[in-house]
Structure formats: C-alpha cells, structure tokens
Hints:
Number of helices: 9
Oligomer: single chain
Structural class: alpha+beta
Distance between the termini: 46 Å
Order of helices and strands: HEEEEHHHHHHHEEEEEHEEEEEE
CATH architecture of one domain: Beta Barrel
Amino acid sequence: MKSKKLIIGIIVIAVVAAIAFAALTLPRMFAKPVEAGATPVAQPSVRAAAAEGKLVPSLSASLSLPLSGRVAEILVKEGDTVQAGQVLLHLEDARQRAAVAQAEAALAGAQARLAELKAGALPAEVITAQSAVDAAQARLDRLASQDDVRGAEAALASSQAALAKLREGTSTDQLIAARADLANAVAARSQAQAAYDRVKSNADIAARPESTALQQATNNYNAAAARIADLENGASKADIAGAQARVNQAQAQVDALKSARPSDIAAAEAELHRAQAQLQLTKDGSRPEVIAAAEADVAAAEAGLDQARAALAETELHAPFAGVVADLATVAGEQVASGAPVVQLADLSHWHVETTDLTELNVVRVKEGDRATITFDALPGETFDGVVERINTIGENYRGDISYTAIVRPERTDPCLRWNMTAAVEFGK
C-alpha cells in the first residue's frame, strides 16, 4: 500500500514538473521573431510583485538661507501658490545694504580716478606747471647774475664812505661856505627887518608881505647859524656809532651772499629740474602702468560691489520653482541659522509613489517602464494605473530585509490626494 502511494506521488511530481517546463519553454518556441531594427513589444510580466509606498510630490524642496539672521518679513503663508523666483521671506539687511552703498562709492571713486588718468592734464594744470618752471628759472638767473652781491657791495662802500667822512670832521672849505651862507642870511634878515619897521604900525601888519619876508629871513638865518655850529663842533659819538653800525650791517650782507651763493645756486638748479620734470609729466599724461593699476582698482571695486550685492541677495529666500508652500518653519522676528529649513515647497500638480518595502526577491521582477496598479488606503475602491519610472540601484535595510525604492508615476491624479498618503503597488498588472 505504501509503495503504491509512493508511486502515485512520484507521478504527480513528474506531471507538475512537465507543466512548469512547458509554461517556460512553449512561449519562447512559438514567439514571433523580432525583425532587425524593430522595437520589441513589451510583454506583461507573468510574475507579479507587490510593495507598499507613500505618495510624494514629483518636485519638492526644503528651502533654507545661506546665512543666519533675523527674519524681517514673511511674504507668504502655508497653502499659497507661488511662482518661480518669487520672494518668500527676507532677513534684516541693513548691514548688507550699507556694504552695497560703500562698495558703490568705492567703485565710483576708482572709475573717476581712471577717467582722470585717461583724460590727461587740464590746460590750467599745464599753465601752473609752466609757471613753476618760469619762477625757478628766474630765481636761478638772479643768483647766477651776481646782482645781489654787487648791490650789497655798493651799499657797503657807501656806508664806509659816510663813516670816513664823519671821522675826518669839517673841512676849511665847508666852514668858509657855511660862514658865507650865514653872512648872507644876516644881510637878508637886516633888510627884511628894515622893511618891516617902516610898516609895523599899520593895523594889517600881520597880513602884509613885509611880515612874511622877515619871518623867512629869520628862519634862513637860524639854519645857517645851526649849520655853522654843527661844522665847528664836528660829528657826535652817536653819529659815528650809527654810521659804524650801518657799515657792519652792509658787510654782513655781503659776506652772507658770498658764502651762501654756491648752495643757493645748487638748490635753485634742483628746483628748476624738478619743475621741468613735473611740467613734462603733466604734458605727457599718465604712464601705461599707472593706468593699468587704476584699471585693476576698478576691477577690484566691481568685484567688491558684486560680492556686496550677492550678500544682500542672500538675505532673501526665492522660490526655485512654481509650487505650493507646504510648510513654514519660522515666524517674523525669529533668528534662523544658516542652512536651517524654513520653507517646504512642492509642486502638487504632479505626484509619484515611492515604495518602501520592495525586497531584493521582488525587485528582480520589476523593471523601468513596467505597468503598475496603485491603490490608496484613503480612497478605497479607487484604482490608478501607473508606470515604473525609476528603481534605485542601492538597496537599504528595511525591517530586516534589503529593500529598493521604486518610483511609480500615476497616470492620473485626484484632488483628494495628499502628501505621504500610504499606497499599495502591484507591478506587472
């Protein structure tokens, strides 16, 4: 009895094996050969696989700022639809704006300097430089002509002669001439006195010419008498001392001019050369290397302005794409850190399902482009056709199994779909 059952079991196993072999080989034997260059028609997978997943937007981003700061204003709220490039929020930016203004001023200064160098000297600057050359040349000519020395020497000779005359005293000729002048003055006064005496009784005597003539004759007499007294007395010690002082001063002037002349001439020549060089530089304009340095300063200032503007732009958070503000993680007045997520943005018009438990045993049965059927726990009875868009190459440990994430795109959407809804996916249907 046992042997009979054993034989029946062996027969059953053989029949099952034969059926399985036929199922694998007969489709290949009767399949139509694919012509060269023709696109193979995708055949539905015989072996289906299933996985669970979650619904996520096809495009989403967790947005952050590249620098830390205090939130000045939030321009959107959760649920708002925004356009690409729209400002979502911005930080306090007084420091960055000041830096931009400073960089703009630095650039304007560098550009003005470069323009000045390229424009060359103004006519007034050339005239000023030429005037400096003329003045330096005149001073050198004056020093080289010896006029100052000759003038000082003439003044010394004059003062020495005056001193010698004082020391010699009065000559006989001078006394004779002075006495003659005094005698003439006495005679003139006597005549004037006689004329005055004849009319002195008149009531208008003070206004008559005889009164005036007598006064003039008296003055001349007094002057002549004083001159006789000076000549007879000779020069005083004070007069001689004053004349000696004038001689000493004139001698010192001559000595100073003669001793300082070589150094003065050398200094005047140096000043003339400097003024001539400055004039030539003014006429020639700036050297190429100076202009190149100024151009480098302009480039550096432009880079500084770009950097300041970039720092200012970093205080604003812009939407990188059109979508919906799904979450705001900050409020106005809050201090946010660099790189900390503050806005969650998503394009909710396109969805896909990311599987969570497609194991290594099932992933070999799925390939990109395969058809799939999607159902959601939140929408019982609703079925969504889908297509496998991508399968991750690297698997991860999930609940003790190595699982791979497959991205499945639904071919239609529904207003009821929400982010992170759980889904069931069947592949190869």
